[in-house]
Input
Amino acid sequence: MDVLKKTITVFAPATVANVSCAFDIMGFALSKPGDIVKLTLRKGDGGVSINSITGDSGRLPKEADKNTAGFAVKEYLRRQGFKDYTISMDIQKGMPLGSGLGSSAASAAAALYGINRLFDDAMDERELLKIGLACERLACGSPHGDNIIPSILGGLVLIRSYVPLDYTRLPVPEGLYCLLIHPNVEVNTRDARRILPETVELSRAVRQWGNIASLVAALYNGDYGLLSRSLEDLIIEPERSKRIPHFDEMRDIAMKNGALNLSISGSGPSVFSFFESVQPAESAALAIQRVFKEYGIESDVYVSKINKTGPEIIR
Amino acid sequence: MDVLKKTITVFAPATVANVSCAFDIMGFALSKPGDIVKLTLRKGDGGVSINSITGDSGRLPKEADKNTAGFAVKEYLRRQGFKDYTISMDIQKGMPLGSGLGSSAASAAAALYGINRLFDDAMDERELLKIGLACERLACGSPHGDNIIPSILGGLVLIRSYVPLDYTRLPVPEGLYCLLIHPNVEVNTRDARRILPETVELSRAVRQWGNIASLVAALYNGDYGLLSRSLEDLIIEPERSKRIPHFDEMRDIAMKNGALNLSISGSGPSVFSFFESVQPAESAALAIQRVFKEYGIESDVYVSKINKTGPEIIR
Output
């Protein structure tokens, strides 16, 4: 019998990064979908192992060093100097990989939140986020935080800089709903970065930052009209949307159903729309899913509020 | 004796445009300096004339069509279809021309505010602003609104787009003071536009829009630390600051005195700093003025709160 054995099971949310004009600086958490990670802590020799992964069709590595959730826990123990424990993990992927929903971030966020709870919140928020950023570097090759930070914190987060880490939680209008659509086609994040322009015309950059500044003002003011007008990406979306099937048609359907926008989630192929209430979001979801079906493409749709609280202990 | 004769005298404030990272999309009004325009309305044949201009060293045109204040009044009468009046004007320039303080905008703002008051606010805000933009096109060759809009409205204004005109008044933290320094050297706005880069690296643009978004969040939250960190312009200032004498030295002095920033006002040569209270702003003002004096450069300094109310009727 173990001297010490503690378990915790944590859900962490999917996230939308690259929020339209706010490319690379903003992300938000959804209420669903998300990943579930179970951690079992025992006295031991510092080892971290992954027992099981489900929902990934066997594609994710079980070596702790190569898996974002495993890496997160190893880094946590290392940075805290906790050497006398072993952790075993069970990971349930609740969303498709490479879908633009922050899949790698959600597993890492669940693992980090869970391990920190097992040690009575021994690590503060900023340090947790720094490990989260290291996990994203492992998964995507660059330490982007617009998935991992909102997945850990919940809410809608603006990231001004990484060194030093400088982020701000922005207000979310109470009635805001998000429709997320994932067509079952895959886009690799590394590839998606390659098609970005290296330079931007100054005049276009100025229009983009007018949109970004107005997006932030709209969130503080709860101004849906301004929110809608500001959610316009002149720089990244024109390139990336070409690789997303039926993007313009989806947008037309969403806007006709009262959406404030339709924009790429992360680097796609998922897209998201904001709505002022739930009913039109659900109508748009059905209409878009129907059209995809006609084209022979399966899709997942999720209608949810913004998740303002982040990870959640399930057991 | 005239059947109808009404006069009004209006002060309109100097403004700071190109607020650091928020190039071309943000401007704010100062409490001082500013321009004063006296309007005299009589029954007549639609003529607009300028009686006198003082404080411009004889450099401004007295032909109404070529003067922003005269043009503003002519456009106002034309767009309203008011044909049975004549207006004569007296203009007192309260700030140096070509100083980066929105000199042309202040005269136009005073004239527009005054003529609209004489006609009992017959024109709404948006239409007034549109005439103001036409005045800026006359003065600067492009219809930039980051001086004229805050000069007419007061406060700190974010401009998302011109067609259609889309602007938002942002909150200003209560205790915020602005130090404005005008070294007596002249920079032409048309020239200043020429040295701008045509393109911007995407990575740099992303950092800039992180700053811009955070600047807006800092204003809403009254977060001086974030305000200071966000007031960093990576794109325009590195070029334009080269033409402003002793720019880096001014910044060092300001920051040592507790400034949140030191940035170019408009296209210079004036610069501005925000402070959390009045005393350090005045200390910085004296210290910078002393250094300029050692270099043989005269300078004007103004310490004021943000002007939240815009033009003011003096008589």
